[in-house]
Amino acid sequence: MTISYKGNLRVKLLSLLLLFLGLNSTAIAQVTATFYCSSGTYKTGSVNSAGTKNDGNMTTINSSTNRGWATFDLSSIPTGSTVSAVTLKFTTYSTTLSSATNNVYGFLGDPVTMAGASLYSSCGSGTSLNASSWSANALQTKVLNATGVAFVAANVGGSINIGFVRGSTNTYNIYGYPGAPADQPQLVITYVPSVACSATPTAGTTTGPTAAVCPSAGFTLGLSGATAASGITYQWESSVVGAGVWTPIAGATASTYVSSTATAAADYHCVVTCSNTGDAAVSTTFTVTINPFYNCYCASSATSTADEEILNVTFGTLNNSSVCGVAAPGPGSTASMYSNYSTLTPTTVFTGSAVPLSVQIGTCGGNYGNWTKVFIDYNQDGAFTSAGEEVYSSATYTTGPHFETGTVLIPTTALIGVTRMRVVNVETTVASGVPACGTYTWGETEDYLFRYSGTTNLCRYTKCYNCIRSCFDLSKYKLHIKRFRFFSRVRNFLSMGKT
Ligand SMILES: [Ca+2]
Ligand SMILES: [Ca+2]
After folding, report:
1. Among 33, 223, 302, 382, whose CB has the most other CB atoms within 10 angstroms?
2. Are residues 469 and 373 part of one domain?
3. Distance CA 230, CA 194 (A)
4. Which ligand lies nearest the alpha carbon of 322?
5. Same domain for 299 and 430?
């Protein structure tokens, strides 16, 4: 019985294995991999027309007589692999806008040993891979043309250089090594390897976002150092953080995994299988962490440091003053344009309470008509767009420094917990000129966090009977019960009086 059972089990397992191999033998073995400009002596840099090389420094591509380069090691791609697409990514730095057409070129050789004059020439000749304008202070994603794809395909298994050449009227600089990895030039190459796998593959290291991901934003996971060969299949899996209980992600069978949302922190890895042998390996575990919604709001900022400035915001126990030209402590702050005070300890505000509001408007320049609005994300959906979330708006515009004052009634439906308040003052004479998101020319945006508490202090007041359930906290139990009884008697007395 036992032997027979084992025999049947073997047959079943073999059938399953054959089914598994059969299904996966038709899977696409296409690989998408990111190649970073390798660090090291003269792997990236700039060179001027006189032939002077700047090792590792691409930020000096600031004139028409400077060109940059980045070297990419493509030795991990088997020679003869079919390359279908290549995208070049790099980051620019500039304070000057320009619509000039810039160019990237492909060339071979070792910049370490190339003479400066030859390197300068090569950066701007060779094979043109992409000609386009570049945005200021942004990640550039440039798809290589067919000639560029062919250039990369012809040189996989080796090393290539990309030359960066600015347009004639352009003043862009380009960040390269030794900047952060995100700023380093990158080549994203999609290809089908030419060599068939024949043994247990290397799954490699899982790569992903280096910072916490906002819930509405997506993220991409990839593999670094994984075996590149035909016959390789991929299955991404996820687990509750630290649990080690893995579940395959439906449809996640490419070498990269792209998720359009990020609702909860999770662990991820990829099962890499050589379908020719059935051997599999698992990549390292990568944990994707989630940025709380209250750190993920739309941007709001002035584009000029001049004129209107929010000098003080007083709201409940919050009393925060600021001055012209000094940046707030929170991420993204720019002096006199956007001030992020979300790093301050959130002030507690009670639902159902009426909170006095005061906003002091000053100026860092001239005096013009301006308008103030305050927004609070009551329903904690990471936006200020829901009904009632514009909690204050000026009655009309005011010219020059003044105080805006009012009272904000926190709805009892406001969700308990931390959420964001945004104060926006804009040089405008109309209410519609003060948006919760986006840029405007003069004025300032200030952001704060608040903690909405349901264990309300309304018990101090006559509405205690509405919140008696939340008043049953051990330390205040007796006091609240006495108050409840008192107000109940008053209410009963009034009710009796009416009958
Ligand atoms: Ca301010
Ligand atoms: Ca909202």
Report:
1. 223
2. no
3. 6
4. 1
5. yes
Sign of the dihedral through C-alpha 175, 179, 180, 184: positive
Distance 324 CA to ligand 1 centre (A): 7
Ligand 2 mean position, distance from CA 182 (Å)? 31
Phi then psi for residue 496, to 5 deg, are -65, -35
pTM of the prediction? 0.56
Count of domains forming the chain: 4
Contacts (Cβ under 8 Å, ≥6 apart) of 233: 24, 27, 29, 253, 272, 273, 275
Residues 312 and 270 occupy one common structural domain: no
Dihedral sign (CA 491, 494, 496, 498): negative
| Strand pairing class (443-453; 347-350) | parallel
Mean pLDDT computed over 485-492: 46
Which residue in 137, 129, 112 sits closest to 165, CA to CA? 129
Within this chain, do residues 310 and 234 fall inside the same structural domain, yes or no? no
Distance 457 CA to ligand 1 centre (A): 31
Distance 378 CA to ligand 2 centre (A): 6
Mark which of 166, 192, 218 sits at the end of a domain: 192
Q: Is residue 20 part of a domain?
A: no
Q: Do 175 and 89 contact (CB within 8 A), yes or no?
A: no
Could you say which ligand is closest to the alpha carbon of residue 446? 1
* 347-377 confidence digits (pLDDT tens): 999 988 999 999 999 999 999 999 999 999 9
CA distances from residue 467 to 351, 416, 479 in whole angstroms, order as listed: 11, 15, 14
CB 184 within 8 A of CB 46: no
- Asked if 168 and 36 sit in the same domain, the reply is yes
Separation of CA 414 and ligand 2 centre (Å) = 10
* Domain assignment of residue 316, yes or no: yes
Where do we find the tokens 């294995």? Answer: 17
Contact call for residues 232 and 275 (beta carbons, < 8 A): yes
How many angstroms from the chain centroid is the CA of residue 461?
45
Pick from 171-185, 307-321, 382-396, 434-448: least confident = 171-185
Q: How far is the CA of 293 from the centre of ligand 1 (A)?
A: 23
* 43 in the same domain as 177: yes
Q: Which CATH number goes with the domain that contains 65?
A: 2.60.120
**Predicted confidence (pLDDT) per residue in 218-227, tens digit:** 888 999 889 8
Output the CA 473–ligand 1 centroid distance in Å. 39
Cis link prior to 215 (omega < 30° from 0)?
Answer: no
**Could you tell me if residue 8 is inside a domain?**
no
Q: Which ligand is nearest to the CA of 425?
A: 1
pLDDT band at 453 (very low <50, low <70, confident <90, very high): confident
Domain residue limits at 211: 195-291
Per-residue pLDDT at 111: 92
Does 44 lie in the same domain as 188?
Answer: yes
Ligand 2 centroid–CA 448 distance in Å is 15
